[in-house]
Design goal:
By secondary structure, the chain is of the alpha/beta class. About 35% of the residues lie in helices and about 15% in strands. It contains 12 helices and 10 strands. It has helices at about 10-15, 30, 55-70, 80-95, 115-120, 130-135, 140-150, 165-180, 195-200, 220-230, 255-270, 275-290, and strands at about 25, 35-40, 70-75, 95-100, 125-130, 155-160, 185-190, 210-215, 240, 300. Helix 3 (about 55-70) packs across helix 4 (about 80-95), helix 3 (about 55-70) packs across helix 8 and helix 8 packs across helix 9. The longest helix has 15 residues, at about 55-70.
Protein backbone atom coordinates (compact mmCIF):
# COMPACT_ATOMS: atom_id res chain seq x y z
CA UNK A 1 0.00 0.00 0.00
CA UNK A 2 1.29 3.46 -0.78
CA UNK A 3 2.42 5.51 2.20
CA UNK A 4 1.82 8.98 0.73
CA UNK A 5 -1.98 8.72 0.63
CA UNK A 6 -3.88 11.06 2.98
CA UNK A 7 -4.70 9.62 6.38
CA UNK A 8 -7.52 9.86 8.90
CA UNK A 9 -10.26 12.47 8.30
CA UNK A 10 -8.58 13.84 5.18
CA UNK A 11 -8.61 10.40 3.58
CA UNK A 12 -12.28 9.88 4.39
CA UNK A 13 -13.26 13.33 3.10
CA UNK A 14 -11.53 12.50 -0.18
CA UNK A 15 -14.03 9.66 -0.71
CA UNK A 16 -16.75 12.34 -1.01
CA UNK A 17 -19.69 10.64 0.75
CA UNK A 18 -23.13 12.03 -0.06
CA UNK A 19 -24.26 13.34 3.30
CA UNK A 20 -26.87 13.97 4.39
CA UNK A 21 -28.32 11.13 2.34
CA UNK A 22 -31.35 12.05 0.18
CA UNK A 23 -34.94 11.99 1.38
CA UNK A 24 -37.63 11.00 -1.12
CA UNK A 25 -41.38 11.24 -0.55
CA UNK A 26 -43.58 8.51 -2.00
CA UNK A 27 -47.30 8.75 -2.57
CA UNK A 28 -48.47 5.34 -1.36
CA UNK A 29 -52.22 4.92 -0.94
CA UNK A 30 -51.79 2.44 1.92
CA UNK A 31 -50.26 5.28 3.95
CA UNK A 32 -52.11 8.21 2.39
CA UNK A 33 -55.60 6.90 3.13
CA UNK A 34 -54.63 6.80 6.80
CA UNK A 35 -53.36 10.37 6.72
CA UNK A 36 -49.67 9.37 6.77
CA UNK A 37 -46.67 10.60 4.78
CA UNK A 38 -44.09 8.04 3.67
CA UNK A 39 -40.50 9.13 3.10
CA UNK A 40 -37.49 7.04 2.08
CA UNK A 41 -34.11 7.86 3.62
CA UNK A 42 -31.77 6.80 0.82
CA UNK A 43 -28.69 5.70 2.72
CA UNK A 44 -28.00 3.36 -0.18
CA UNK A 45 -26.88 6.44 -2.14
CA UNK A 46 -24.18 7.64 0.29
CA UNK A 47 -21.31 6.12 -1.69
CA UNK A 48 -21.35 4.09 -4.93
CA UNK A 49 -18.67 1.62 -3.84
CA UNK A 50 -19.63 0.99 -0.23
CA UNK A 51 -22.90 -0.92 -0.58
CA UNK A 52 -25.86 0.00 1.55
CA UNK A 53 -25.50 2.14 4.64
CA UNK A 54 -22.03 0.78 5.39
CA UNK A 55 -20.44 4.21 5.28
CA UNK A 56 -21.97 5.28 8.60
CA UNK A 57 -20.81 2.14 10.39
CA UNK A 58 -17.38 1.94 8.82
CA UNK A 59 -16.43 5.64 8.86
CA UNK A 60 -15.22 5.82 12.51
CA UNK A 61 -13.34 2.54 12.14
CA UNK A 62 -11.85 3.58 8.81
CA UNK A 63 -10.60 6.81 10.34
CA UNK A 64 -8.79 4.94 13.10
CA UNK A 65 -7.28 2.40 10.73
CA UNK A 66 -6.24 5.06 8.23
CA UNK A 67 -4.55 7.20 10.87
CA UNK A 68 -2.40 4.30 12.02
CA UNK A 69 -2.10 2.53 8.65
CA UNK A 70 -3.54 -0.57 10.30
CA UNK A 71 -4.89 -3.61 8.50
CA UNK A 72 -8.69 -3.83 8.63
CA UNK A 73 -9.46 -7.30 10.00
CA UNK A 74 -13.10 -8.35 9.93
CA UNK A 75 -15.59 -11.19 9.58
CA UNK A 76 -18.54 -12.28 7.48
CA UNK A 77 -20.37 -14.98 5.60
CA UNK A 78 -20.01 -15.88 1.96
CA UNK A 79 -22.40 -13.12 0.81
CA UNK A 80 -21.60 -10.47 3.41
CA UNK A 81 -22.20 -6.89 2.26
CA UNK A 82 -19.99 -5.84 5.15
CA UNK A 83 -17.01 -7.73 3.70
CA UNK A 84 -17.62 -6.16 0.30
CA UNK A 85 -17.80 -2.68 1.80
CA UNK A 86 -14.65 -3.17 3.87
CA UNK A 87 -12.73 -4.47 0.86
CA UNK A 88 -13.83 -1.52 -1.26
CA UNK A 89 -12.93 0.95 1.48
CA UNK A 90 -9.51 -0.64 1.85
CA UNK A 91 -8.83 -0.25 -1.86
CA UNK A 92 -10.02 3.37 -1.88
CA UNK A 93 -7.99 4.31 1.20
CA UNK A 94 -4.88 2.27 0.45
CA UNK A 95 -5.39 0.00 3.48
CA UNK A 96 -4.76 -3.72 3.68
CA UNK A 97 -7.86 -5.79 4.49
CA UNK A 98 -8.40 -9.33 5.72
CA UNK A 99 -11.82 -10.98 5.67
CA UNK A 100 -12.39 -14.02 7.85
CA UNK A 101 -15.06 -16.06 6.06
CA UNK A 102 -17.23 -18.58 7.86
CA UNK A 103 -16.91 -22.09 6.42
CA UNK A 104 -13.54 -23.72 5.67
CA UNK A 105 -15.27 -25.93 3.09
CA UNK A 106 -15.44 -22.84 0.86
CA UNK A 107 -11.67 -22.59 0.61
CA UNK A 108 -11.38 -25.10 -2.22
CA UNK A 109 -14.31 -23.82 -4.24
CA UNK A 110 -14.52 -21.08 -6.87
CA UNK A 111 -15.32 -17.74 -5.27
CA UNK A 112 -18.90 -16.58 -5.53
CA UNK A 113 -19.46 -13.10 -7.06
CA UNK A 114 -19.48 -11.39 -3.65
CA UNK A 115 -16.20 -12.91 -2.46
CA UNK A 116 -14.67 -12.48 -5.92
CA UNK A 117 -15.40 -8.75 -5.65
CA UNK A 118 -13.70 -8.70 -2.24
CA UNK A 119 -10.62 -10.41 -3.67
CA UNK A 120 -10.55 -8.08 -6.67
CA UNK A 121 -10.52 -5.14 -4.23
CA UNK A 122 -7.43 -6.59 -2.56
CA UNK A 123 -8.98 -8.30 0.44
CA UNK A 124 -7.16 -11.38 1.70
CA UNK A 125 -9.76 -14.05 2.41
CA UNK A 126 -9.19 -16.39 5.33
CA UNK A 127 -11.62 -19.32 5.57
CA UNK A 128 -12.22 -20.82 9.01
CA UNK A 129 -14.36 -23.69 10.24
CA UNK A 130 -17.73 -22.88 11.72
CA UNK A 131 -16.83 -23.88 15.26
CA UNK A 132 -13.90 -21.45 15.24
CA UNK A 133 -16.08 -18.75 13.70
CA UNK A 134 -18.65 -19.05 16.49
CA UNK A 135 -15.88 -18.38 19.03
CA UNK A 136 -14.27 -15.53 17.09
CA UNK A 137 -14.87 -12.98 19.86
CA UNK A 138 -12.92 -15.01 22.43
CA UNK A 139 -9.46 -13.41 22.86
CA UNK A 140 -7.48 -16.62 22.49
CA UNK A 141 -9.40 -17.66 19.37
CA UNK A 142 -9.06 -14.20 17.85
CA UNK A 143 -5.31 -14.28 18.52
CA UNK A 144 -4.98 -17.61 16.72
CA UNK A 145 -6.96 -16.38 13.72
CA UNK A 146 -5.02 -13.13 13.40
CA UNK A 147 -1.77 -15.09 13.72
CA UNK A 148 -2.86 -17.25 10.77
CA UNK A 149 -2.91 -14.04 8.77
CA UNK A 150 0.57 -13.12 10.02
CA UNK A 151 -0.78 -10.28 12.16
CA UNK A 152 -0.74 -9.24 15.80
CA UNK A 153 -3.08 -7.03 17.80
CA UNK A 154 -0.75 -4.09 17.09
CA UNK A 155 -0.93 -4.57 13.31
CA UNK A 156 -4.66 -4.52 12.76
CA UNK A 157 -7.97 -2.96 13.67
CA UNK A 158 -10.50 -5.71 14.39
CA UNK A 159 -14.02 -4.85 13.25
CA UNK A 160 -16.77 -7.29 14.30
CA UNK A 161 -19.14 -9.12 11.98
CA UNK A 162 -21.53 -6.70 10.34
CA UNK A 163 -19.37 -3.78 11.46
CA UNK A 164 -21.43 -3.24 14.62
CA UNK A 165 -19.33 -1.94 17.49
CA UNK A 166 -19.50 1.12 19.71
CA UNK A 167 -17.74 3.27 17.10
CA UNK A 168 -20.23 2.16 14.45
CA UNK A 169 -23.18 3.00 16.69
CA UNK A 170 -21.76 6.49 17.22
CA UNK A 171 -21.34 6.81 13.45
CA UNK A 172 -24.97 5.82 12.88
CA UNK A 173 -26.15 8.48 15.32
CA UNK A 174 -25.72 10.86 12.38
CA UNK A 175 -28.61 9.08 10.66
CA UNK A 176 -30.94 10.01 13.49
CA UNK A 177 -29.61 13.55 13.64
CA UNK A 178 -30.35 14.03 9.93
CA UNK A 179 -33.98 13.05 10.59
CA UNK A 180 -34.60 15.44 13.49
CA UNK A 181 -37.62 17.59 12.74
CA UNK A 182 -38.50 15.39 9.75
CA UNK A 183 -39.88 12.08 11.02
CA UNK A 184 -42.26 10.93 13.70
CA UNK A 185 -41.38 7.26 13.24
CA UNK A 186 -38.33 5.75 11.54
CA UNK A 187 -38.18 2.11 10.50
CA UNK A 188 -35.00 0.19 9.72
CA UNK A 189 -34.13 -3.44 9.15
CA UNK A 190 -31.73 -4.93 11.70
CA UNK A 191 -29.05 -7.57 11.33
CA UNK A 192 -26.44 -6.99 14.02
CA UNK A 193 -28.17 -3.95 15.57
CA UNK A 194 -25.58 -1.20 15.09
CA UNK A 195 -27.67 0.97 12.81
CA UNK A 196 -30.70 0.93 15.11
CA UNK A 197 -28.51 1.61 18.15
CA UNK A 198 -27.11 4.77 16.57
CA UNK A 199 -30.29 5.87 14.81
CA UNK A 200 -32.33 5.84 18.02
CA UNK A 201 -29.62 7.72 19.90
CA UNK A 202 -29.51 10.43 17.25
CA UNK A 203 -33.23 11.12 17.08
CA UNK A 204 -34.77 13.97 19.04
CA UNK A 205 -37.25 13.69 21.90
CA UNK A 206 -40.68 12.75 20.60
CA UNK A 207 -39.34 10.73 17.68
CA UNK A 208 -39.18 6.95 17.77
CA UNK A 209 -37.47 4.16 15.89
CA UNK A 210 -38.72 0.69 15.02
CA UNK A 211 -36.26 -2.05 14.18
CA UNK A 212 -37.30 -5.02 12.05
CA UNK A 213 -34.96 -7.97 12.76
CA UNK A 214 -34.02 -10.04 9.72
CA UNK A 215 -32.99 -12.93 11.96
CA UNK A 216 -35.16 -14.84 14.37
CA UNK A 217 -34.14 -15.78 17.88
CA UNK A 218 -35.04 -12.80 20.06
CA UNK A 219 -31.43 -11.89 20.85
CA UNK A 220 -31.34 -8.47 19.22
CA UNK A 221 -32.84 -6.28 21.96
CA UNK A 222 -30.05 -7.21 24.36
CA UNK A 223 -27.48 -6.62 21.61
CA UNK A 224 -28.80 -3.15 20.76
CA UNK A 225 -28.82 -2.23 24.46
CA UNK A 226 -25.23 -3.49 24.79
CA UNK A 227 -24.10 -1.42 21.82
CA UNK A 228 -25.84 1.70 23.13
CA UNK A 229 -24.31 1.23 26.57
CA UNK A 230 -20.83 0.87 25.12
CA UNK A 231 -21.29 3.82 22.76
CA UNK A 232 -23.35 6.24 24.85
CA UNK A 233 -23.21 4.97 28.43
CA UNK A 234 -26.84 3.78 28.63
CA UNK A 235 -29.89 2.88 26.60
CA UNK A 236 -30.76 5.89 24.43
CA UNK A 237 -33.82 7.05 22.55
CA UNK A 238 -37.32 5.66 22.05
CA UNK A 239 -37.02 2.40 20.13
CA UNK A 240 -38.53 -1.03 19.90
CA UNK A 241 -38.30 -4.16 17.77
CA UNK A 242 -41.02 -5.84 15.71
CA UNK A 243 -40.02 -9.43 15.18
CA UNK A 244 -42.81 -10.48 12.79
CA UNK A 245 -41.14 -9.84 9.45
CA UNK A 246 -37.92 -11.89 9.32
CA UNK A 247 -39.63 -14.50 7.15
CA UNK A 248 -38.11 -17.42 9.02
CA UNK A 249 -34.56 -16.14 9.36
CA UNK A 250 -31.70 -14.48 7.55
CA UNK A 251 -31.62 -14.93 3.77
CA UNK A 252 -35.13 -16.39 3.81
CA UNK A 253 -37.60 -14.77 1.45
CA UNK A 254 -41.21 -15.86 1.72
CA UNK A 255 -43.77 -15.75 -1.09
CA UNK A 256 -45.58 -12.99 0.83
CA UNK A 257 -42.42 -10.87 0.96
CA UNK A 258 -41.73 -11.47 -2.72
CA UNK A 259 -45.28 -10.41 -3.60
CA UNK A 260 -44.94 -7.28 -1.45
CA UNK A 261 -41.59 -6.32 -3.01
CA UNK A 262 -42.83 -6.86 -6.56
CA UNK A 263 -45.97 -4.83 -5.87
CA UNK A 264 -43.90 -2.03 -4.32
CA UNK A 265 -41.68 -1.90 -7.41
CA UNK A 266 -44.75 -1.79 -9.65
CA UNK A 267 -46.22 1.07 -7.63
CA UNK A 268 -43.07 3.16 -7.30
CA UNK A 269 -40.50 1.94 -9.82
CA UNK A 270 -37.99 1.15 -7.07
CA UNK A 271 -36.56 -2.39 -6.87
CA UNK A 272 -36.21 -3.50 -3.26
CA UNK A 273 -33.31 -5.39 -1.75
CA UNK A 274 -35.08 -8.41 -0.28
CA UNK A 275 -33.06 -9.45 2.77
CA UNK A 276 -33.26 -6.12 4.60
CA UNK A 277 -35.10 -3.27 2.89
CA UNK A 278 -38.17 -5.18 1.74
CA UNK A 279 -38.64 -6.63 5.23
CA UNK A 280 -38.53 -3.17 6.82
CA UNK A 281 -40.97 -1.67 4.31
CA UNK A 282 -43.26 -4.67 4.64
CA UNK A 283 -43.23 -4.13 8.39
CA UNK A 284 -43.98 -0.41 8.18
CA UNK A 285 -46.76 -0.95 5.64
CA UNK A 286 -48.36 -3.62 7.81
CA UNK A 287 -48.19 -1.38 10.87
CA UNK A 288 -49.78 1.46 8.90
CA UNK A 289 -52.61 -0.82 7.79
CA UNK A 290 -53.05 -2.02 11.39
CA UNK A 291 -53.57 1.58 12.51
CA UNK A 292 -50.37 1.72 14.57
CA UNK A 293 -49.62 5.32 13.50
CA UNK A 294 -51.79 8.35 14.22
CA UNK A 295 -53.09 10.47 11.36
CA UNK A 296 -50.77 13.29 10.39
CA UNK A 297 -47.60 11.37 11.23
CA UNK A 298 -44.57 11.16 8.93
CA UNK A 299 -43.10 7.69 8.57
CA UNK A 300 -39.55 7.26 7.27
CA UNK A 301 -38.12 4.00 5.97
CA UNK A 302 -34.33 3.74 5.87
CA UNK A 303 -33.14 2.19 2.60
CA UNK A 304 -29.94 0.48 3.67
CA UNK A 305 -29.01 -1.16 0.37
CA UNK A 306 -29.88 -1.79 -3.25
CA UNK A 307 -30.42 -5.21 -4.82
CA UNK A 308 -27.13 -6.85 -5.77
CA UNK A 309 -26.72 -7.36 -9.52
CA UNK A 310 -27.50 -10.98 -10.31
CA UNK A 311 -26.56 -12.66 -13.57
CA UNK A 312 -28.23 -15.77 -15.02
CA UNK A 313 -25.59 -18.06 -13.53
CA UNK A 314 -25.95 -16.55 -10.07
CA UNK A 315 -29.66 -16.78 -9.47
CA UNK A 316 -29.44 -20.07 -7.59
CA UNK A 317 -26.47 -19.12 -5.47
CA UNK A 318 -27.05 -15.56 -4.37
CA UNK A 319 -29.29 -14.89 -1.36
CA UNK A 320 -30.19 -11.56 -2.97
CA UNK A 321 -31.95 -13.49 -5.69
CA UNK A 322 -33.66 -16.27 -3.81
CA UNK A 323 -34.31 -17.67 -0.39
CA UNK A 324 -31.71 -19.82 1.30
CA UNK A 325 -33.35 -22.74 3.06
CA UNK A 326 -30.18 -23.68 4.90
CA UNK A 327 -29.80 -20.26 6.48
CA UNK A 328 -29.94 -20.19 10.26
CA UNK A 329 -31.40 -17.54 12.49
CA UNK A 330 -28.19 -16.97 14.40
CA UNK A 331 -25.59 -14.40 13.36
CA UNK A 332 -22.95 -17.00 14.15
CA UNK A 333 -24.61 -19.70 12.09
CA UNK A 334 -24.50 -20.60 8.44
CA UNK A 335 -25.66 -17.35 6.93
CA UNK A 336 -24.33 -13.94 7.80
CA UNK A 337 -26.23 -10.72 8.23
CA UNK A 338 -24.74 -7.92 6.24
CA UNK A 339 -25.12 -5.94 9.37
CA UNK A 340 -27.70 -3.18 9.46
Amino acid sequence: MTSDLPRGPAALAALDPRLPSPLEELRDERFARRGLRLLLKRDDLIHPELPGNKWRKLEPNLGAASSGRLTLFTFGGAYSNHLRATAAAGRLLGLATVGVVRGDELAGRPLNPSLARCAADGMRLLFVDRATYRRKAEPEVLARVTARAGLTADDCLVVPEGGSNAAAARGCAGLGEELRGVADVVGVACGTGGTLAGLAAGLAEGQRAIGFPVLKGGFLEAEVERLQTEAFGARRGDWRLDDRFHGGGYAKVTPALTAFAEDFTTRHGLPLERLYVAKALHGLTTLAEEGAFARGMTVVAVVTGAPAPVGPSDTKSSPSATSNPSATSSPSGTSSPSGA
